[in-house]
Amino acid sequence: MAGMSDFVLHFDKSAFKQLDRFAQLACQVYNLGDDTQWFNTFRSGLNGFYLRLYGVATHYQDVHTWIPRVRHPFETEYHMTSVLFNMDSSLECLVFALNALGYAAAPHGFRSVTDRKELQHVLPRDIIGTVKENGIRDQLLGYEKVFPTIRKYWMEKRALIDAICELHDVSKHRQTIYMGGKKSTDPPPGFYERLGVAGKRDQEWCYWPDAEIILRDDPKAPEVNRSPDKRKDWATLEELAEEFIRFVNQTGLLALGDATSNIQLPHREFLRGS
């Protein structure tokens, strides 16, 4: 699976680090300047994005890893809802960073980094919009000018973004989103022996981590309207995580390409002494 091995998630942050370097160049006085402190806003959003990816990877590994203690009955739900919170929040943090960089280049196309109320409304819908009966609304025009390939890609991945948002919303406000799954029953060599429970099946199972976690399908639908035979693209947390890694990695590449192609700077290199 892409970026995954032994339930360890690997995000490629190299493009985002290059984007940060470009933003640092852009904020120099001989380029776009930084009178509005947009760079600090950008850097803060990007750091928040990194922290949320760490949260995704940490909770994902914890729920799948053999650990020498008895598992709490609610532990699976705790870790999976934490994974979804961090996925959802990572997207919001990234949009916060992109908005700041976009604002520096095209202030009228993005939300003002100097306006508290405007910053409260920085969300993924600024990029992908909201689907209405008469079309898509709420998109900011600046993304078409500064981040056109990001906009196109995120709209193509709307189903993934919506799934993450809905699963997080339901787990936060409504009910469980854990529908069962499979447990790992193949511990590392000597695991049960060190704990003194080897051969005691009634105790061994208390240590089993998750191998597959089934997600609630169409999580906001009333129970009476649910179809037990319906299967979505991401039936398990593991499938969702694999797609999320691809999404994040591709987004980094596109964001870097868009910024360097569409944000014009008088100087493309740092001047000596700056």
Could you please describe the fold and organization of this structure?
With 274 residues, the chain is mainly alpha-helical. It has one domain. The chain contains eleven helices and six strands. Strands 1-2 form a two-stranded antiparallel ribbon. Helix 1 runs parallel beside helix 11, helix 3 packs across helix 8 and helix 3 packs parallel to helix 11. The protein is elongated.
Break the fold down into its secondary structure elements and pairings.
Elements: E1 4-5, E2 8-9, H1 14-26, H2 38-64, H3 75-105, H4 116-119, H5 125-128, E3 130-132, E4 135-137, H6 142-146, H7 148-156, H8 158-173, E5 178-183, H9 191-195, H10 201-204, E6 210-215, H11 237-262
Antiparallel strand pairs: 1-2, 3-4, 5-6
Helix pairs in contact: 1-2, 1-11, 2-3, 3-8, 3-11, 7-11
